[in-house]
Amino acid sequence: MAIRAIFKAVMDSKQVALLVPTTLLAQQHYDRLKARFSKFPVKVEMLSRFRTAKQQEKIIEDLRAGVLDVVVGTHRFFRMMLNIKIWVFLLLMRNSALA
């Protein structure tokens, strides 16, 4: 259900932030979204401690520029999101699945 909501929002020209409680979940959801959207013009990125500072800065730049459609992240995203217009937020709890 969440994947459909993300896809619909992106197709309606919105940016989506998918917030998850752990770095491991961020990686899992990022991998899943990349795979599911691979046949569509949807750019997905992830903000977590698995990214270097330089990679994180690039992701934030791309968000501000409107280049990215979906960002998956942990609490780290909140620290970096100043001056970013995100239109849709999704929050997944620990035991939630993207289905």
Short description:
Helices cover 42% and strands 16% of the residues.
| CATH architecture grouping | 3-Layer(aba) Sandwich
Order of helices and strands: HEHEHEHE
- Percent strand: 15-25%
How many extended strands?
4
Residue stretches low in confidence (pLDDT < 50, at least 5 long) are: none
Report the CATH superfamily.
P-loop containing nucleotide triphosphate hydrolases
Helix content: 40-55%
CATH topology: Rossmann fold
Based on the structure, what is the oligomeric state of the protein chains?
Answer: single chain
**What's the total helix number?**
4
Radius of gyration equals 12 Å
> Order of strands side by side in the largest beta sheet?
2-3-1-4
CA-based shape:
globular
Summing up helix and strand content along with how strands pair, one would put the structural category as alpha/beta
Tally of separate domains: 1
End-to-end distance: 6 Å
**Main sheet properties:** 4 strands, parallel
Name of the CATH first level = Alpha Beta
